[in-house]
Automatic annotation (TrEMBL):
It comes from the Eukaryota. This is MFS general substrate transporter. Residues 437-462 are annotated as: Disordered. It comes from Aspergillus ruber (strain CBS 135680). One of its GO terms (cellular component) is membrane. It is found in: Membrane. It is a multi-pass membrane protein. InterPro entries: Ion_channel_UNC-93, MFS_trans_sf, UNC-93-like_regulator. Keywords: Membrane, Transmembrane, Transmembrane helix. The chain crosses the membrane at residues 108-127, 181-201, 231-251, 271-289, 301-319, 404-425.
Length: 462
């Protein structure tokens, strides 16, 4: 480390620092996925019929799942930096397809853009997953992941601000103009130049002075074989239901808002719901980074927190929805008496959902032994996520009146995912596997150095 400081300029050390790289990844997450979520939150189909919107979403999710399935070998061959560069080029396609649909009514671009954009986004998602699983030092993984997950969810803040500015008056029902999408397209374009600032993982130096463990490069044939090996590993099989569940909730809650809230009440809900997410994600991050507990205990404690919070929110939401089924409140406005009690379940699920995702990525990073393995694990997890989102979207597109079915299915998925997750959590190593490998390599290196100088470093007896 001393040699690194003495030979590498300060600007390069800052650039290659893991925190700088995580900030750059967070900026890209805000410019890309967060803006996509913001557009979706605006009701971005524009003039498209529901059928066309459903087709575009189905095509997009299918392309995303296939790309993520093949993403591990592709990303490990290209390197995470160039996979991020290529993937970020596709982000403006989503915004431009909605703009063109709203401006010119050409729905074919909405479908084609969904396919092309999802292929590029899939490449970016896999590289992102591998990078965020690898960058953080072992004592700060929870806080690093909190920074990333918050950046991904800030799109609602932007979308809610725009939506509220246009729909703050009572009984406003006009749709969005085409010009509304221009700011989103501009922000999506910014992801591309920021991708060039990403450092190759082998050059990153973590804030605790350690370097990223890189495995030996594999041939394309061997990388392809690793797909099946990864998908059938205990890590992926035990976490698969959690991956499906952790992104399943959004469709049901979108239906809930659209069914029971006025336009301006929905806009206000989208604006204020991300704030508590920031507090919650960083709070969980500090717990997962606690130094007085070993990694397995932190994993167990984190699971209890995430599950109990989600159970509370879903019991509350199901009870509330049963009441709405018996007495439909119509479209609740923000100055109506039942607004607060009806909005709060949505407010809290916008925190418990991201908490579930942040926790899962923290847990995955505990098992990776190298950057390449983290890319493969991230690719498998993202593939399963995409399949779950496709199922959720299809199911909620058939729900015409009540989101109760979606709430119950999501709650049931949590119950089904719990036992495999308990097994996986109890398998968590007491220290990250990558750190153990690094320590073993350091012992071997020290022993060789000692032998070369006429002595051997003493080892503790087992």
């Amino acid at each position: 480390m001393d040699e690194y400081k003495s030979t590498v300029p300060l600007w390069k050390r800052i650039w290659q620092n893991s925190l700088t790289q995580m900030l750059l990844m967070s900026i890209q997450a805000f410019c890309g996925p967060a803006m996509g979520d913001a557009i979706g939150g605006l009701g971005g189909g524009g003039l498209a019929t529901p059928q066309i919107s459903n087709i575009a979403s189905a095509v997009g999710y299918a392309a995303l799942a296939v790309t993520c399935f093949m993403g591990g070998p592709i990303t490990n061959k290209l390197g995470t930096k160039w996979a991020l560069v290529i993937g970020s080029m596709s982000f403006p396609i989503r915004g431009s397809s909605y703009y063109c649909n709203s401006k010119f009514g050409n729905q074919w671009y909405l479908i084609l853009g969904g396919a092309i954009g999802s292929i590029g986004a899939g490449c970016w998602y896999v590289a992102e997953a591998g990078t965020i699983l690898t960058l953080a030092p072992s004592g700060a993984r929870g806080k690093y992941l909190a920074l990333w997950i918050v950046s991904r969810n800030l799109g609602q803040l932007v979308g809610g601000s725009i939506n509220l500015s246009q729909n703050h008056e009572e009984s406003v029902s006009n749709g969005l103009t085409a010009d509304t999408y221009i700011p989103f397209i501009i922000i999506e374009c910014l992801a591309f130049p920021f991708a060039f600032f990403i450092s190759p993982l082998e050059r990153v130096v973590r804030s605790d002075g350690t370097r990223v463990v890189m495995a030996e490069a594999l041939s394309t044939k061997k990388e392809m074989k690793q797909i099946i090996k990864t998908l059938t590993s205990k890590l992926v099989l035990l976490s698969a239901l959690w991956a499906v569940w952790s992104f399943f909730y959004s469709g049901s809650w979108s239906t809930y808002l659209a069914t029971y809230f006025s336009v301006r009440a929905r806009a206000l809900s989208s604006l204020i719901s991300p704030f508590f997410c920031i507090v919650g994600c960083f709070g969980l991050g500090f717990i997962l980074d606690a130094k007085y507990l070993n990694q397995r205990r932190r994993a167990q404690f984190g699971l209890y927190i995430v599950v109990l919070l989600n159970v509370g929110v879903y019991v509350w939401s199901i009870v509330k929805q049963v009441k709405f089924n018996h007495h439909n409140p119509g479209h609740i406005d923000w100055d109506d008496e039942p607004y607060a009690s009806s909005f709060l379940p949505y407010f809290f699920v916008q925190t418990t959902g991201p908490l579930s995702q942040s926790y899962m990525y923290w847990l995955l990073s505990s098992f990776g032994t190298s950057a390449q393995e983290n890319v493969r694990n991230g690719a498998a997890f993202r593939c399963i996520e995409a399949v779950g989102q496709a199922i959720a979207y299809a199911m909620n597109s058939q729900t015409k009146s009540s989101p109760l079915v979606g709430f119950c299915v999501t709650f049931g998925l949590l119950g089904a995912a719990l036992l495999p997750m308990i097994i996986l959590v109890n398998m968590t190593p007491e220290k990250p596997l990558a750190d153990i490998d690094t320590e073993q390599q350091q012992i071997v290196s020290d022993d060789k150095g000692g032998a070369a100088n006429g002595y051997a470093k003493p080892r503790m007896q087992e």
